[in-house]
């Protein structure tokens, strides 16, 4: 269900996505409004679920997490019990930054961030010991070309 947003809402969202630590005064100045209407719109968009939690974006390499793997998973299992066990396994692993169920030949894709290939192998060994997987292909990202959390909200 999409929410109706006007131009001012979208301008506010752009500012919040770029830097959620900005003061209301800064946001209001940048979007050409005053503080109270901006606050009311932010509150409304939070209530509507347009704005979720606010977080800090950390630099993985500064934390020693230099290897990013995209893990393609095919399974022969499609029962609810297997899926429940698999989802619990990947949700409990902090290395898994994203997980998607796919249409097509690959059933799932995971984005996994670890220190190096040895750390990936430890992740892999732990995963396959928890849940039966038919086929796993790990692709090492050689270079991150674009990574953003900014959604295209300009309408």
From TrEMBL:
<keyword id="KW-0805">Transcription regulation</keyword>
<dbReference type="InterPro" id="IPR019888">
    <property type="entry name" value="Tscrpt_reg_AsnC-like"/>
</dbReference>
<dbReference type="GO" id="GO:0005829">
    <property type="term" value="C:cytosol"/>
</dbReference>
<dbReference type="InterPro" id="IPR036388">
    <property type="entry name" value="WH-like_DNA-bd_sf"/>
</dbReference>
<keyword id="KW-0238">DNA-binding</keyword>
<feature type="domain" description="HTH asnC-type">
    <location>
        <begin position="5"/>
        <end position="66"/>
    </location>
</feature>
<dbReference type="GO" id="GO:0043565">
    <property type="term" value="F:sequence-specific DNA binding"/>
</dbReference>
<dbReference type="Pfam" id="PF13412">
    <property type="entry name" value="HTH_24"/>
</dbReference>
<dbReference type="InterPro" id="IPR019887">
    <property type="entry name" value="Tscrpt_reg_AsnC/Lrp_C"/>
</dbReference>
<dbReference type="InterPro" id="IPR019885">
    <property type="entry name" value="Tscrpt_reg_HTH_AsnC-type_CS"/>
</dbReference>
<protein>
    <submittedName>
        <fullName>ArsR family transcriptional regulator</fullName>
    </submittedName>
</protein>
<dbReference type="InterPro" id="IPR000485">
    <property type="entry name" value="AsnC-type_HTH_dom"/>
</dbReference>
<dbReference type="InterPro" id="IPR036390">
    <property type="entry name" value="WH_DNA-bd_sf"/>
</dbReference>
<dbReference type="GO" id="GO:0043200">
    <property type="term" value="P:response to amino acid"/>
</dbReference>
<dbReference type="Pfam" id="PF01037">
    <property type="entry name" value="AsnC_trans_reg"/>
</dbReference>
<keyword id="KW-0804">Transcription</keyword>
<dbReference type="InterPro" id="IPR011008">
    <property type="entry name" value="Dimeric_a/b-barrel"/>
</dbReference>
